[in-house]
Amino acid sequence: MLATAGYIPDSESPLGSGIGSTEDDVSLLWLKSSSDTDAAVALLEANASPAGIGLGQFFYGPSLAINYNDPTVDPRTPDIIVTPNVGVTYSGSHAKQAEHGGFAHDDTNVVLLLSNPRFKPNTVKAAVGTAQVAPTILKVLGINPSALDAVRIEGTSVLPAVQ
Predict the structure, then answer these.
(1) How far is CA 116 from CA 32, 80, 126, 144, 162, in A?
(2) Region of residue 101 (left: phi > 0; alpha: psi -120 to 50; beta: else)
(3) Which residues contact 131 (CB under 8 A, 6 or more apart)?
(4) Which 8-state DSSP code applies to residue 11?
(5) Cα distance between residue 19 and residue 30, in whole Å
(6) What per-residue confidence (pLDDT) applies to 44?
(7) Across the 163 residues of the chain, what is the mean pLDDT of every consecutive 10-residue run?
(8) Cα dist. 104→8, 38, 78, 109 in Å?
(9) CA-to-CA distance for 138 and 141, rounded, in angstroms?
């Protein structure tokens, strides 16, 4: 709605203007110029209620850098992430009834179960990420996890129980 009115700076939208985003239980926005981020966030915040964003959160700048690469350096990283109220899903479809995964607490805090005959039964309480699964599988198979470019570049470790 805001994008078609031309209020949001040009972005990576396949339509050539407006917000280049994804739709679901989170909205990822890539702007053509990251220098427009503060203005775009201000506009989104000012129009949150009419746009149906509600009391969701906006992650950009330093709050985005906590978990993601700098969008001014890494084009894979969106400039802005918008998380809506719990239960809100962004979609152009009227058929969508539910969603899996997202940024809500119950979406980001899930159980990960590892099974291997060499493992001793154990409960490990540690913050881990899905990026650690591939290096862990390689290590268990006897393959050096550093064989993966991403592991070397990002310094991804294997899961703590497999150290």
Answers:
(1) 47, 40, 19, 18, 10
(2) left
(3) 150, 154, 156
(4) B
(5) 7
(6) 83
(7) 39 44 68 89 80 72 88 87 70 61 62 79 83 90 93 92 74
(8) 26, 24, 18, 9
(9) 5
